[in-house]
Amino acid sequence: MNRKKIALIGGGQIGQILALLAAQQELGDVVLLDIPELEHPVKGKALDLLQMAPADPFDAKVTGTSDYRDIAGADVVVITAGIPRKPGMSREDLLSTNLTVIRAVADEVRTHAPKAFVIVVTNPLDAMVYAFHKRSGFPKQQVCGMAGVLDTARWRAFVALELDVSVEDVSGTVLGGHGPTMVPLPRLTTVGGVPLTALLDAATIERIAQRTREAGTELVKLYGKGSAFFSPAGAAMVMVESYLKDRKRVLPCAALCQGEYGIQDLFIGVPCRVGAGGIEKIYEIPLDDHERSLLAKTVETVRESAAEVDG
Ligand code: APR
Questions:
Q1: 60 CA distance to ligand 1 centroid (A)?
Q2: What is the pTM (predicted TM-score) of this model?
Q3: Residue 82, ligand 1, Cβ within 6 A
Q4: Residue 160 maps to which CATH number?
């Protein structure tokens, strides 16, 4: 059996961790691509990883390049190309710069890897995945954004920290846009099957929800000149793995809604089944009035951001 091919567009902070995780998990051979000016550093990162393999050990070929022809035939493309946030910036502040990048990347991916399952990570996430889809013309099953898995991981991590339990036993989901309007769902979060609402009072739950909504910004402040990279890479790999192994995991992804939750023609975080068919299905969770109103607010924000892509 031939190895799968994973193309990583953007070989910066997140791209390099994606390469490490993909190789360590032996999900396939990895191509790490960056702009021509950074061809040497990505070649270096690839070579460094290759030399890590015997110690770990893992079998995966890792190459660095600035030539899009090297992504030909990729099964999966993960896009982190673009600029990250600096302190004081919102994700939306990145829109015009990263829109130009995403459009250029979409043209190249359409030419060289037209069958690939594409996961966009570049921010502002919901607008960037929408822009990729529009520009590439790829079917909606083939394009999604990584945000919900990360937002949910943050929610689960903070809940586990509060209760001093394993993160593995905290199950839940976060809906909506990747920004301060995202919607953690405490009512549907469980800890080893026990409802979260039976374990923590409302004020504590709200404090954790607020930390989740601001988790990316908390890291931007701490890092000083960039944004999170371990956790976004880990979250994107969960999606890559589910696709390549046809695991059919149910994961919150930024997917194109066409009527689901009453949302028309917008990429936004919703629970999806991710398998060999890409985004195979969107699940509609019955929401209560409060949750519906929070979802309406996040939809409005994401729609404004998407309008800038259209405009
Ligand atoms: N093609 C390929 N790579 C590109 C292109 C392009 N057209 N334009 C920029 N890049 C590369 C940059 O040269 C850089 O190496 O994308 C890389 C981005 O890496 P970092 O600056 O280290 O940013 P990172 O922390 O990885 O975040 C990338 O993901 O989560 C989002 O907000 C984050 O938008 C940001 C993106």
A1: 23
A2: 0.98
A3: yes
A4: 3.90.110.10
